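#onboarding

Welcome to the new folks! Below is a worked example of what a typical request in this channel looks like: someone posts a single protein sequence, and someone else replies with the predicted structure as tokens. Don't worry about understanding the tokens yet, we'll cover that in week two.

Example request:
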Amino acid sequence: MKKFIIERNLPGASNFSREELQAISQTSNSVVKTLGKSYTWVQSFITNDKIYCIHIAEDESQIREHARLAKLPVHIISEVKTIIDPSYCNDLAVA
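Example response:
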């Protein structure tokens, strides 16, 4: 399984109501259940006019199928190749 970042352009996303965000979440979860394959929506980040989603899937085509069924836009899909965090430097030998 691979991890992907999905960029969705949704004008006014930061102004969506709690109910609108819940509806998007419910639709996404329903579609995940119908895909019949291993697929995980991890979380999403909302900015002014975009939503960035983290999904775990087999491939990009599965991401596109989820979006099509959920009627969500997809503008950019990027596969995550490496993850680093503040603890990453602790694993490096200091010369």
